[in-house]
Design brief:
Distance between the termini: 45 Å
Shape: globular
Number of domains: 2
Strand content: under 5%
Number of strands: 0
Structural class: mainly alpha
Number of helices: 15
């Protein structure tokens, strides 16, 4: 697994990059087969006979074929991009991520959500030349669906992590193009949180999490999982809040520097073009802020559901739904003021 990872990231030859991707894929499959969950033998619980590892293998093979075809034939490079998107699980080809993760144990989820996606994410910058506009479009597509998924799956922690993976990969996809170093920082912080959360859940109580959360007697596990969920949510004073503020503020500083250069050129056509581009990117930042706010609401709903068991679960869900407006309003004020002071 480590060898395939290093081979993909540090090779200049397209064949070695492809070989590293395949080694990484075959190294992950044994972890899927060793899953202890009773639901892992059959992917679809009722009638289908598709095994989880075979399903993952099938998806990755499709991505590998498209990637190889696009990388070898330069005129078909779009296929290579689609292949990497399929392998990573970025919009619009993220459909396999929640379906697979919901059938895995926690250790396998940690690997699929972090290590498995390293080569594909960082190869976008080094192998293919993608414009920031395309990256933002794909990122927003995945982010919108992921936010909806988190808010409607807050009673199932595995699905919450699956949609969280889709949303964070959508942000990382843009960060890698904008700022490679900051993309690495964001990825390692996200991976650390996911692996830590999966290690906490990968214990004797893990089977309880297949459809719901830990029972009320496991207060220590509940508190630790709840803390990790709050960190995931991007609320202050956690580091995830600062990372997202930096990500959003980065658009402002990038656009402002270009805007000043256009003003100094004293070219009316170029100047008005930069003004329009600047305003459009501010609109994109506002869309990201709204999505991050709704994502945070989903994490908070999950946090509340974590401490609700039995008959109190329904009343807790009703309370969360009724308090959505207050949560959204509070988070909106918080994020907009944070962005404002960051720009200053």
């Amino acid at each position: 697994l480590v060898f395939g990872l290093l081979l993909s990231l540090f090779s200049n030859n397209i064949f070695l990059i492809w070989l590293g991707l395949e080694l990484n894929m075959f190294s992950v499959i044994p972890f899927l087969n060793s899953s202890v969950s009773e639901n892992n033998n059959v992917f679809f619980l009722n009638t289908s006979e598709i095994n989880v590892s075979f399903y993952y293998f099938f998806v990755q093979v499709i991505g590998s074929i498209l990637f190889t075809w696009g990388a070898v034939m330069s005129s078909w490079y779009v296929l290579g991009i689609i292949g990497l998107i399929v392998k990573i699980g970025i919009a619009p080809f993220f459909w396999w991520v929640p379906a697979l993760i919901n059938r895995l144990d926690w250790f396998s989820i940690g690997i699929i959500s972090t290590i498995q996606k390293v080569p594909g994410v960082f190869l976008f910058r080094f192998v293919f030349d993608l414009s920031i506009e395309v990256c933002v479009l794909l990122s927003l597509m995945g982010f919108i669906v992921a936010v909806i998924g988190i808010n409607f799956s807050f009673n199932n922690l595995k699905l919450v992590l699956a949609w969280s993976s889709v949303s964070n990969m959508s942000i990382l996809f843009v960060l890698i193009v904008l700022n490679n170093s900051f993309g690495f920082i964001y990825y390692f912080f996200y991976s650390f949180l996911v692996i830590l959360l999966c290690l906490v859940l990968n214990n004797s109580f893990s089977n309880v999490f297949c459809d719901s959360f830990l029972n009320g007697n496991n207060i220590n596990n509940n508190m630790l999982v709840g803390l990790l969920l709050l960190i995931f949510s991007g609320l202050p004073p956690f580091l995830s809040f600062l990372l997202k503020i930096y990500f959003l503020g980065g658009f402002y500083f990038f656009d402002f520097s270009v805007f000043v250069e256009g003003f100094e050129m004293v070219n009316p056509t170029t100047f008005y073009y930069l003004v329009a581009s600047n305003l459009s990117n501010y609109f994109i930042v506002m869309v990201y802020i709204i999505l991050i706010i709704f994502q945070s609401v989903g994490y908070i709903k999950t946090f509340i559901a974590l401490f609700s068991t039995g008959s109190s679960r329904l009343s807790s869900s009703v309370f969360v739904l009724n308090s959505n407006f207050n949560l959204i309003l509070s988070l909106s004020v918080l994020y907009f003021f944070s962005i404002f002071f960051y720009m200053i």
